[in-house]
Write a structure and sequence with these properties.
Elements: H1 5-20, H2 33-36, H3 45-64, H4 70-77, H5 81-109, H6 111-134, H7 138-156, H8 159-166, H9 172-198, H10 202-211
Helix pairs in contact: 3-7, 3-8, 3-9, 4-5, 5-6, 5-7, 6-7, 8-9
Length: 212
């Protein structure tokens, strides 16, 4: 019975390939981890992007609301010009210390958790502002404005993560651009909408609200 030299050489070649980490005949059919992990782009990604854009625009609207109607707001709440101006400045002041924990929550805890904190602060701040406006209490309005300011870094830092989590690679630049543009669009709305709502009947509106 003779020795099968060909079989021995084949086995030795496979063994050496396995030890060296190269692909041998035995693992040629095994998919690589990169090939196994395929990115799935869901159709609802555009809806998620639209929701984020609405959140970003609403936060920007809260920021700039009082700037185009500062005189009317000062008269309505009975406060100084500095107090009204601080309603916008507080967003810039809050951004510096809050941006670091906001980045931590978005990166470590995840996009969903970070945006829940941002949208929650935005919602609570809006409700306090509404309450403080219906029965003029500037303290409530200022508190709501501060909460919205704290929520801002969670929202402004999120566009790249929204794109990375929901969109395929070839659409991420577009998604990031759309999400980033939403904030200045909200600022533009905030400059146009308040004077339109207040209009020429501002004194009558303030009188009616004070009487309530």
């Amino acid at each position: 019975m003779g020795l099968d030299v060909t079989a021995i050489n084949t086995e030795e070649s496979e063994l050496l390939n396995g030890l060296s980490g190269s692909r041998g005949p035995s693992d040629s059919k095994q998919p690589s981890p990169a090939a196994a992990a395929q990115f799935v782009a869901y159709g609802e990604r555009w809806f998620q992007l639209a929701l984020f854009c609405v959140l970003s625009m609403s936060n920007a609207l809260l920021w700039i609301t009082f700037a185009p109607i500062s005189n009317h707001a000062q008269e309505f709440y009975g406060v100084s010009t500095i107090a009204i101006n601080m309603m916008s400045v507080v967003f810039m002041i809050a951004y510096i210390p809050v941006v670091f924990p906001a980045s931590y929550f978005l990166d470590v805890k995840g996009l969903r958790f970070g945006l829940l904190l941002g949208s929650g602060g935005n919602l609570l701040g809006s409700l306090l502002r509404i309450t403080g406006t219906k029965h003029p209490q500037f303290f409530l309005v200022a508190t709501g404005q501060t909460l919205a300011a704290i929520a801002q870094p969670f929202i402004l830092n999120a566009p790249p993560l929204v794109a990375a989590n929901w969109f395929p690679e070839h659409q991420r630049t577009l998604a990031t651009t759309i999400a980033s543009v939403a904030n200045p669009v909200g600022v533009a709305i905030g400059f146009v909408l308040p004077p339109t709502v207040v209009g020429s009947n501002v004194r009558m509106i303030m009188t009616m609200m004070h009487n309530d």
